[in-house]
Amino acid sequence: MRDKIKDQQDNAEKWFQELRNQMVGAIQKLDGSNFIEKKWDRPGGGGGLMSVLKGNLFEKVGVNISTVYGEFSEEFRESMPGTEEDPSFWASGISVVAHMKNPKIAAAHFNTRYISTKGKQWFGGGCDLTPAIPENIETTKFHEGLERTCNQHDKSYYNNFKTQCDNYFYLKHRKEPRGIGGIFFDYINTNFENDLSFIKDTGQYFINFLIENTQRKKDFEFDQSDLITLSKKRSRYVEFNLLYDRGTLFGLKTGGNIDAILMSMPPNANWD
Questions:
Q1: What angle do CA 247, 263, 59 make, to 5 degrees?
Q2: Which of 68, 121, 187, 210 has the most C-beta neighbours closer than 10 Å?
Q3: 3-state SS string over 210-221?
Q4: What pTM value is reported for the model?
Q5: Rg of the chain on CA atoms, in Å
Q6: Residue 109 bears catalytic tag
């Protein structure tokens, strides 16, 4: 059984690395700038690679991968399935956040992870858009593509995961959504090969949409008032990530790299 789980871990980790390389290559080609890479090690076991680009179209885009292992703290293990008798865990994942220079192009986020504990293994993740200036074409295309991707695997996925996304990316203290949604899922464990196939297709769809949407809108005109709107919208992004984001919490609770954890933050924000 352990050999099977190890094979699954290896397969998930390998694909996260492949997707990372594809995303970095596609973004560099479109932007004409290069990522700056920084490896990091986790004292308790494992580590990762943080890659950040500050370029011509992408004001700040980060692509992070990591694989960490060890034991959950007594406090945190209570919230993680399969740790009742053993606090050990293994987790691998990829996270992508793109903040654009042009305020007419939505900020984009994708992440997925595979986690193993003594008694459970599962995938989690999702993707969503946070436009400062919403556009019907952008919103419609994004959701239609997600629905097609989900329907290839399970007809119930899109509606269920969209609802979970809407509920998750919601700033309770402001009573407003972070953006226009997408899909969000956790604790997926139906069949490893089928689940990994869904994760792969979702990741592929995200990078294709990000590149195509940026190409379509990169020359849209904007003015100073649009930049002010963007800066204010980014403040909501900061608030969500510091108050509610599960990935931020997981990284902090498991001794992850602080710079990599906070990579998702926009380059600037305004609360005026």
A1: 135
A2: 210
A3: HHHHHHHHCCCC
A4: 0.94
A5: 18
A6: yes
